[in-house]
Specification:
Blueprint lengths: L5 H4 L3 H22 L1 H6 L19 H6 L13 E8 L5 E7 H17 L7 E5 L5 H14 L2 E3 L6 H11 L3 E4 L1 H13 L11 E4 L5 H11 L2 E4 L12 E3 L5 E3 L4 E6 L2 E6 L10 E10 L11 E7 L3 E4 L2 E4 H9 L8 E5 L4 E6 L16 H12 L3 E6 L8
Parallel strand pairs: 3-4, 3-5, 5-6, 6-7, 17-18
Antiparallel strand pairs: 1-2, 8-9, 9-13, 10-11, 11-12, 12-13, 14-15, 16-17
The structure holds zinc ion (ZN).
């Protein structure tokens, strides 16, 4: 096992919980003092033990939308030196700020993942995460610098160029999205390149994939495959670590995790710019305190599905409400629709009714192609639109 922050990664449970309690009390002081919207909410609440946290109010994505952009900041903007944006409910933007200390923490947390994945100062790292995973790249760069691995400071946009970089610079460690890793694997197969002729030892994916995809990629790229799990509003990467056993441990010195009604709830313990108290992540999850063979003591996280009708096609995230918005501006407005989301494509099935084509003097054109190009233009998603018979709708 290879740790980066041995003291925190292996901290005995009792010591960890004591530290969490102290950090939580300090967090409440900061929130009361520096964040206006927290002041009233937290006014009469006391925290003497970790169990008391259950009585504290949640923070929701809606709170973040209401206070967008800077209402949740606990530090003056001049001390916030980095801003990242992520997709919030119904496609509204959410912003996350970092102070210099926050970035330093982020680097250390990313370094923990790199170290657990076997990265040393001898490695050459290629980071190729475009689109929604883009801000992840800066976290990994910070982490790699701490380990003193060599980072190729270029994110190749084209698969040919990426392949050329793999052959020329001989990176041993590739950080990329599942979509890109699969494209790369297929290209290597098509061109009959022997994956063993590349120098890749490990591929770290920006998000979890199923077991089958992981095995397919490991064989196709001739490399070990590891996965990250992050949440943009909390930290991505850096919320947790995938250990050598293949389990996610939450960095509990930095984040306090709860599961409330099946939903993962996270409190940031040390973040300066934008601390979050009991943030409802909209991700289903289970936590497990069993001992892990790797020796790390951080609670085990089993992430599940999204709870808020947010989907992903390739690496593009969108909400069902955004699809409804697009449809509302076409002739399909007001019609019921169903989404079918696969890894590569969005299928939109719209219930057909006579009114869809009624009221026109000449027979109107089928609007499907227009809807597809609108979805591509506004959400960046390749979609296939089709009509279906009205579905049975239970009354009441
Ligand atoms: Zn472990």
């Amino acid at each position: 096992m290879s740790t980066f922050d041995r003291r925190y990664e292996l901290m005995p449970r009792a010591e960890l919980e004591q530290m969490q309690l102290e950090r939580l009390q300090a967090l409440l002081v900061r929130l009361r003092r520096n964040v206006r919207r927290s002041r009233e909410k937290l006014a009469d609440l006391r925290l003497d033990s970790l169990a008391d946290l259950q009585r504290f109010p949640f923070t929701t994505q809606e709170d973040m939308v209401e206070s967008f952009p800077y209402g949740m900041f606990a530090f003056p903007l001049r001390e916030v030196i980095r801003l990242h944006s992520t997709l919030g409910p119904e496609g509204k933007p959410l912003v996350i700020g970092h102070t210099r200390n926050d970035l330093a923490h982020w680097g250390r947390l990313a370094a923990r993942q790199l170290a657990a994945s076997g990265v040393t100062a001898n490695d050459v790292i290629q980071i190729s995460v475009g689109g929604s995973a883009h801000s992840a790249a800066s976290g990994y760069v910070l982490g790699a610098e701490l380990i003193e691995a060599s980072v190729i400071a270029e994110d190749p946009l084209h698969i040919d160029y990426q392949l050329a970089m793999l052959q020329n610079y001989r990176p041993t460690f590739l950080i990329t999205t599942p979509t890109n890793a699969l494209d790369l694997m297929r290209t290597i197969e098509e061109r009959r390149i022997d994956p063993q002729s590349l120098y890749l030892r490990t591929v770290l994916l920006s998000r979890p994939v199923d077991k089958e995809t992981r095995e397919q990629l490991a064989a196709g790229l001739f490399a070990a495959v590891r996965c990250n799990f992050g949440i943009g509003e909390i930290l991505d990467p850096g919320l947790c670590i995938e250990c050598e056993v293949g389990l996610f441990h939450i960095h509990e010195d930095q984040f306090l995790a709860e599961v409330c009604d099946g939903e993962l709830v996270i409190t940031t313990l040390a973040r300066e710019a934008m601390p979050l108290l009991r943030y409802r992540t909209r991700v289903a999850a289970e936590l497990c305190r069993d001992k892990c063979a790797c020796g790390r003591t951080g609670v085990l996280l089993q992430p599940g599905a999204r709870l808020d009708r947010r989907y992903r096609v390739q690496e593009t995230m969108f909400y069902e409400a955004q699809v409804a918005d697009v449809l509302a501006q076409t002739r399909a407005a007001g019609h019921r629709f169903h989404l079918e989301v696969t890894e590569r494509q969005l299928r939109v099935a719209i219930e057909l009714s006579e009114s869809l084509f009624a009221g026109a003097i000449s027979p109107p054109q089928d609007p499907r192609r227009d809807i597809e190009s609108e979805l591509l233009a506004r959400l960046g998603v390749e979609a296939e639109v089709r009509w279906i018979e009205p579905q049975f709708q239970p009354k009441g």
